[in-house]
Design brief:
Layout lengths: L1 E4 L2 E4 L2 H20 L28 E2 L10 H15 L4 E3 L6 E4 L1 H8 L4 H4 L5 H7 L1 E6 L8 E13 L2 E12 L4 E10 L1
Parallel strand pairs: 3-7, 5-9
Antiparallel strand pairs: 1-2, 4-5, 6-7, 7-8, 8-9
Helix pairs in contact: 2-3
Length: about 190
């Protein structure tokens, strides 16, 4: 048999034609006999259908504030944060739930965050995986250094609970022409 597909002749077997006809008639029957009731098909905040039938509540990373252990001063806290990142985060990728983008964590990005950071921001280092996974993409900007290998800088926002305080974390992720994305820097403000 010969079938037309977008103006192109395609040869199909009798079995393939029979299957196509069955599928076509099934689709036609369903569309003629079923009415779509939007309120019966719950969606999450991104418009996707929820597997549980109810809209999902976004998870918020929660920290007690003592995940890096005790420290005597900010210098020791920075050292503990660097060591934690080296052992648990460096070289790993985390998938952002809202975009599907895989974001890699390199020590350079973590060091950039730690240097000159407040004590509260340093304490968020153990939550980087959850922050990257739950953050929402706000915008994409051109690389401020006009790096020819960069497609731009993505700005993400995530909610975070630290020491029983709601915070908003802003993260920058560098997107390279080869497709890689690297966590670069974050800062925090009261939510």
């Amino acid at each position: 048999f010969i079938a037309w597909n977008l103006g192109v002749v395609v040869r199909i077997t009798a079995k393939q034609r029979e299957r196509i006809n069955r599928l076509f008639h099934r689709v036609m029957f369903i569309s003629a006999n079923d009415e779509w009731k939007e309120d019966e098909h719950k969606r999450d905040e991104n418009g996707r259908f929820s597997s549980s039938g109810e809209s999902s509540t976004p998870k918020i990373p929660t920290l007690k504030g003592n995940e890096l252990g005790r420290y005597k001063d900010i210098k020791e806290l920075r050292s503990k944060a660097r060591l934690y990142a080296l052992e648990h985060l460096a070289g790993k990728k985390f998938k952002n739930e809202s975009t599907g983008n895989e974001i890699s964590v390199a020590m350079g990005g973590v060091k950039h965050t730690i240097v000159g950071a407040s004590e509260e921001l340093i304490k968020t280092i153990p939550a980087i995986p959850e922050i990257l996974e739950t953050a929402k993409l706000l915008k994409t900007e051109p690389d401020k250094n006009d790096d020819p290998n960069s497609l731009g800088v993505e700005i993400y926002q995530a909610k975070l609970m630290i020491e029983n305080q709601n915070r908003e974390v802003i993260i920058t992720v560098k997107h390279w022409k080869d497709g890689r994305r690297y966590y670069d820097h974050g800062y925090m403000k009261k939510a």
